[in-house]
Amino acid sequence: MFIVRIMSIVKISLTLVSSLIIIFSFNSTALAKLITLDKIIVSINEESITDLMFNDAVQREMQIIKTSQQAIPNIDDLKVVIAKRLLDQGLLNSQARILDVKIKQEEIDNEITNIKKNNKLDDASFENFLYNENITMGEFSLNISNQIKRQKLIDNFVKYRINMDENSLFDYYNKHFAKTNLRYKSRSFSIMLPSTSNVADQALALEQMNDYYHELKTGDLDAIKLKEIFRSDSQMQVKEFDMLKSELLSSFVDALINLEPGTFSIPFASSFGVHIVELIKIKAEPIASFDNMKEEVQSAYYRSEFNHYYEAYIDELFKEAKIDYKDQKFAGYISQYEENPDKYTK
User: Fold this and answer.
1) Which of 4, 93, 126, 295 stands the most exposed, by the fewest C-beta atoms within 10 Å?
2) Residue 346: its pLDDT value, please?
3) pTM here?
């Protein structure tokens, strides 16, 4: 699913005044008609999100997804993600205004320089990008300014809460990473069937295996004798294997999972034939130690804690804000997110 990206740059900043798209229709008197096509769909204190901003953000996200060759998401799910993202940005922009967060022009210039560098754009290429995106340098700088202000709020009110001490990391490792793989050392006795075999062939092989199984249970046959029988018949085989549970066919896992070492499974069928398996021993192996996975644990723990404290901070701003939904579809997207946030943040 999609990650809610709180720091994305939107084309048009969240301003109080509704955006205008001006269409010039020239007639013989060369008069231009100004037609307002955009409308405010939600206001957040003194900030606003417009219909044009929302649709533009959806289209941009679809373009990013197609360019990166990701799976195309359900469009309604994508709209839920975009609605939440824009609402978060509106809340943060409003709070930055309330707290009168200050930034210097140097900070904006440095960020634009980094954007050029990271995207390998010279001045001419950057100007061409702005032209193609139909955005002025002033609008772009304003977007960068809002982004920096949002980041400062997040640094001051979210990141400082994250505790990255060793005990917290180790507890997270034990809860989410300290898993084990089961390794089965076992022996299989198989009557192999060709792909052309039918139900009758399988039934006959299963009947023969049941006879062997009965002899094993009554003590008339042991593993050594069974091994000799199978090795003397060209249509049957005995094979020892030492494999992780995740590497075994599901039918073999089902057969082995409830066995004690030294015991045999009941006969079972697979796509290859009919089998009996003997469990020799089972060993639990850790996937990786804390020291070997520390960087991965740190990254996963930070993301988890950041999302938790970020959402808590946004909830605080949401409760204090005056939010007026002027479009029920947009309000519905926010309600969908609130009903099942995990669906949209994984």
Assistant:
1) 295
2) 61
3) 0.59
